[in-house]
From TrEMBL:
Gene Ontology terms for molecular function: ATP binding; protein histidine kinase activity
Name listed for the protein in its UniProt record: histidine kinase
Gene Ontology BP annotations: detection of visible light; phosphorelay signal transduction system; regulation of DNA-templated transcription
UniProt keyword annotations, A-Z: ATP-binding, Kinase, Nucleotide-binding, Phosphoprotein, Receptor, Transferase
Catalytic activity line of the entry: ATP + protein L-histidine = ADP + protein N-phospho-L-histidine
Length: 508
């Protein structure tokens, strides 16, 4: 049983998953050089192609494949734009009198890699016809949550896995299950969070380039590629391979969850991994190549819609920020104080910046609402606050790290968005957030399937590990939160200036 120690965890990041030197057993791989001379092959080629022996190294591929197949493959290679593109060919006869194969060709450091698996011809047309209706169902959706829910549902309908999840990555690279469609008897994973370390760094980099991964059978033995090293001693780079065999650590993780097969598609936005669509099955499972291609196309559409929606969302937030400004300018009148107006400010603010509590300290008066420190507790942090710059908002997910005096209320709130709203003496508006570990809980039955303590390769222990990483931290303030807060600060400065002007005029 695996029980990775801290050193093994950092080794996770070093594991060369693209140099694994093996493929999964449902397909074969042949690498040829620029002259189409065979440089390597997986040792299952003879079996799959139904020929007497594996093609010999340093012989021409044309000695093994029919001329028509070679022509089509060469043509496909000529269409490749870069090392990170792959051409697919469906229903190709490779050997004389042999079966039909679905193939993928791509370039890998001077090699041409050919991968092939048996063609499942019966459903080819049906698979293509799935794209249109799926898009029709996505099209009218206008909010992010429903889009993710629908994507999970459609992918489950399309591919038939027991569980389909949409993961979203946070700024700290931890992951969250934001949508889920599952077989009814399965424990829900919705809302589950797991630490950044569960998907090592090199895997994240790889997933940005090769967005599609399938593991057909966690128990199947990997099929070695020979020779393991080239004449120059180099392993074959399988970054863009569909058949690549997977990290034993990851496979162990999946097995610990009872998962026998998986399929994942990365969602990349602005060159960053936004999230992934991830499917689990409790029996071995391999959708036909054409169906996988449809799912991939679908995910590209999903990505585009997501992008459009996120752009819309930030437009809307900006518009709401402007509206808040206008409202506050109108309703905050002279002769009143900010503390008196706090309920109104909070109401107008609404969920523009999510928060669990709010405090105002202005003109020597204090008022807090929701999860907010007492006046005494706030007074304790005032000296430290006074020594911070007054020119911009300060966002922190752990105020105690900056201001130790805040420890007296750290159980109540730990995240703080601090808006300095006057120069001297300092006035503040502060938005508070609760500790994250208090907000996110495991959705399923906690008594079920708890891993041994210290056992990391299990989602429950992974969830505990995530909880440890966020101990004492609130949810992160996003760039949009900070921008909105900066807008609010400037509005309040303006309002305060005007309020004092009005007072001054009245006094005249
Ligand atoms: C990959 N680990 C992944 C992926 C996910 C998780 C989502 C990428 C998607 C995939 O290929 O399946 C983690 N999956 C989860 C979690 C749940 C889930 C938490 O469904 C919970 C419901 N992983 C570890 C440790 C190592 C590790 C300690 O937890 C250390 C070696 C490695 N994870 C690891 C590797 C990959 C991975 C190497 C890439 C696998 C590959 O493509 O070869």
């Amino acid at each position: 049983n695996f029980n990775p120690t801290q050193t093994q965890l950092t080794e996770c990041d070093r594991e060369a998953i693209h140099h694994i030197g093996a493929v999964q057993n449902f397909g074969g791989l042949i690498a040829v050089n620029n002259d189409w001379v065979i440089a390597r092959h997986s040792i299952n080629c003879a079996d799959l192609l139904d020929i007497d022996s594996n093609p010999a190294i340093n012989t021409r591929l044309a000695d093994c494949f029919v001329p028509n197949a070679i022509d089509i493959l060469k043509d496909a290679v000529s269409r490749l734009r870069s090392d990170d593109t792959v051409e697919r060919l469906f229903g190709l006869r490779l050997t004389s009198g042999g079966k039909l194969f679905d193939c993928a060709v791509h370039l890998s450091r001077g090699n041409i890699i050919l991968e092939f698996e048996r063609h499942a011809d019966a459903h080819y047309a049906n698979h293509l016809s799935l794209v249109g209706p799926a898009l029709t169902r996505l099209d009218p959706i206008r909010d992010l949550g429903s889009l993710c829910d629908m994507a999970a549902k459609l992918v489950k309908d399309m591919l038939g896995y027991d569980r389909v999840m949409v993961y979203r990555f946070h700024a700290d690279e931890s992951g969250e299950v934001v949508a889920e469609e599952r077989r009814e008897d399965l424990e829900p994973y919705l809302g589950l969070r797991y630490p950044q370390a569960d998907i090592p760094q090199q895997a994240r980099e790889l997933f940005k380039r090769n967005k599609f991964r399938v593991i057909a059978d966690m128990d199947a033995a990997a099929i070695p590629i020979e020779p393991a090293r080239s004449m120059k001693g180099e392993p074959l780079d399988l970054s863009m391979s569909m058949l690549r065999s997977h990290s034993p650590m990851h496979v162990q993780y999946m097995k610990n969850m009872g998962v026998k097969a998986s399929l994942s598609i990365s969602i990349v936005r602005n060159d960053r991994l936004w999230g992934m669509i991830s499917c689990h099955h409790y029996e071995p499972r391999l959708p036909a190549y054409s169906l996988r291609t449809v799912a991939e196309t679908f995910s590209q559409m999903f990505s585009m819609m997501l992008d459009r929606m996120l752009i819309d969302q930030s437009e809307k937030l900006r518009a709401r920020g402007r509206e808040l400004h206008d409202q506050l300018m109108m309703r905050l009148a002279g002769g009143t104080t900010l503390t008196e107006n706090l309920p109104m400010i909070e109401e107008l603010l609404g969920d523009l910046i999510e928060h669990d509590g709010i405090s105002v300290w202005a003109g020597g008066q204090y008022r807090g609402r929701g999860n907010a420190p007492t006046p005494e507790q706030f007074a304790d942090i005032m000296p430290a606050l006074g020594s911070t710059p007054s020119s911009a908002v300060i966002a922190t997910s752990s105020i105690v790290q900056q201001i130790p005096e805040a420890s007296s209320f750290a159980d109540l709130v730990t995240g703080a968005m601090i808006l300095p709203i006057s120069r001297s003496p300092r006035d503040y508006l502060v938005l508070w957030r609760k500790p994250l570990s208090q907000q996110v809980t495991w959705a399923g039955n906690p008594a079920k399937s708890i891993a041994a303590p210290g056992e990391r390769l299990h989602p429950r222990s992974s969830f505990s590990a995530w909880k440890e990483t966020v101990e004492g931290l609130s949810a992160e303030w996003s760039d949009a939160d900070v921008q909105a807060a900066e807008g609010l600060r400037i509005t309040l400065l303006e309002v305060i200036l005007r309020m004092t002007d009005e007072v001054a005029i009245e006094r005249k």
